[in-house]
Amino acid sequence: MPAGTGPAAPDERFCETFDGYTLPVRVLPAGRGCRMLALHGARSNLERLDPWLRPLQARGVASLAGSLSGHGSDSPLALDATSLARNLQEALRFAARLSPGPEVVMGHSLGGALALKVAEAHAATVHTLVLGGPALYPEAAFAAPHFGPPFTAAISVPFGFRDSASLAFLRRFQGRVLLVTGEYDGLPAQAHGGQAGRSAGTVTVTVPDGASHTVYSPIPAEVLADIRAAAGARCSTIVLEGCDHRMSAHLARRPAVADRLAEQVQRIIAAAGTGPAVHGRIGASGAWRA
């Protein structure tokens, strides 16, 4: 825990009620009131965000996170009984708890796609977007009636993500965007036998020491490039060396990396949408290289 911070206050937990089901919500208090919404990815829940959120809490950044339906063991709905559109409505309900609106929205993977939509809905209050290995979905994915074949078909069209209205929002957004990626996520699919505009998927790469490793790279390289281009000079970037898309697991195994990332995120949040962009890499030991 950084110097100058005391013991964390107890977590605040409650349930948000929807039509026929409830979802767990947790606030990690820290100093001033909570102004940040955090959204997890697929096959996950709010607890999987701990390697991101606990170090931020230690640095005085409070957060609210809720579990989205269909993804984690705490979901009352099966994956095929819910949809991306329903997840967005859940995320918007969580955001409404931060009246008059969140100032910071963070999302990982699927949660990144939702974070963009939530930030657009709360553009009057959001000054910072933190996107970790974010997905970017075509509008057709939000129209799919449920997860499963209709959703998969919608997101499998090469370059289909360029239909996302979130890119136009990013071009208008006046706040700051922090894009955090794993070194081995967003790999060019064509370099691994795939098709441009789609993800590389699970592939084998050769790391600097000459060893071969299997990595998971579900985010198309062009998604990350398009997000950077849309955000322009307002986009900061951090690369986690030796990491693929499984960022929470990487951070959980490397507390020094998680703390260094929290340090950089806290600085960007504290700037409240102002200041120059930051670009750097965090090594496996937690060392920062600009």
Over the alpha carbons, how many angstroms does the gyration radius reach? 18 Å
Quick one: how many beta strands? 12
SS content category:
alpha/beta
Biggest beta sheet summary: 10 strands, mixed
Provide mean pLDDT, rounded: 95
Specify the overall morphology. globular
Report strand order across the widest sheet. 1-2-4-3-5-6-7-10-11-12
> Which range best describes the helical content: under 10%, 10-25%, 25-40%, 40-55%, 55-70% or over 70%?
25-40%
Number of helices: 9
Order of helices and strands: EEEHEHEHEHHHEEEHEHHEE
Distance between the termini: 24 Å
- Oligomeric composition of the shown chains: single chain
Low-pLDDT residue intervals, each spanning 5 or more residues: 1-5
In short:
By secondary structure, the protein is an alpha/beta fold. 30% of the residues lie in helices and 22% in strands. It has a 10-stranded mixed sheet, with helices on both faces. Strands 8-9 form a two-stranded antiparallel ribbon.
Q: What features would you describe in this structure?
A:
Helix content is 30%, strand content 22%. It has nine helices and twelve strands. It has helices at residues 50-58, 84-96, 110-121, 139-143, 149-155, 165-172, 221-231, 247-253, 255-270, and strands at residues 12-18, 21-28, 36-39, 63-66, 104-108, 128-132, 176-182, 201-206, 212-217, 235-240, 279-282, 288-289. A hairpin with a 5-residue loop joins strand 8 (201-206) and strand 9. The two termini are 24 Å apart.
What is the secondary structure topology, with strand pairs?
Elements: E1 12-18, E2 21-28, E3 36-39, H1 50-58, E4 63-66, H2 84-96, E5 104-108, H3 110-121, E6 128-132, H4 139-143, H5 149-155, H6 165-172, E7 176-182, E8 201-206, E9 212-217, H7 221-231, E10 235-240, H8 247-253, H9 255-270, E11 279-282, E12 288-289
Parallel strand pairs: 3-4, 3-5, 5-6, 6-7, 7-10, 10-11
Antiparallel strand pairs: 1-2, 2-4, 8-9, 11-12
Helix pairs in contact: 1-9, 2-3, 6-7, 8-9
